[in-house]
Amino acid sequence: MVDGGGGSGLLRSSSENTAAEVMARLAVELHDAEGVKETADAAVDFARTAIDCEQAGIVLAHGGRVEIGTVTDALVTRLYQLQIEAGTGPMLAALTENTVVHVPDVAEERRWPAWGSAAEAAGIGSVLHVPMRDRERTIGVLSLFSTRSHAFSDDDEAIAVLLGRHVALAVSEAQHDVDLHIALDARATVGQAMGILMERFDVDEAHAFAILRRYSQDNNTRLRDVAEQLIHTRGFRPGQTPGTHRPSR
User: Fold this and answer.
1) Is the dihedral of CA 107, 110, 115, 117 positive or negative?
2) What does the pLDDT look like over 160-218, one tens digit per residue?
3) Euclidean distance between CA atoms 231 and 18, whole angstroms
4) Please, which residues bridge with residue 65 across strands?
């Protein structure tokens, strides 16, 4: 039975559900997820149950940009977007200041008036934003939303911090796997395009790569896109084929 009185939900529902057991279950669920989106989805579903809150969400930070990773309801998206567009709010404070931001009573919150009004209108009573740190960097924020004020206890906050750390590591690993797959795929694509050039113009690998790179630079096009164009069309756009003379020895 889930405690509906603002406690730690699943963590307080039975003496058998220790924090270690909950984290072990989370680790299994995150390990089974196949990609970044799937990992984030598993994390928010687990967090919502483990800490007994109605909604949850994750935002991810990429090179100074903030992106919505996943949400359990459209109202969370609206609250995230409001903050991203305004450049201020509790989620952004958790992200930029790398600190837990707990709003125990949205109706009494005065630091972010526009966000507070929107959250209260959406029926949110309390919010907990936890930075997700992967070793030395903050990669995003895990957010928990309750319709009740003062819904999150100190124990809930401690558990949310642990969840955030586990999720950060899992998301980082998923992102690495995606980046690695993209890099390997790009390498294979460029290699295939180089093979076409080597056969067509009777040049070596170095010269074939130089042709692709020159075309990429001259036309401000990513090397992988140039390679894909060559593979699909068996040629460059008319009038844009770079020179194929052999480099001087």
Assistant:
1) positive
2) 888 888 788 777 776 554 444 555 566 777 777 888 888 888 888 888 888 878 887 78
3) 56
4) 62
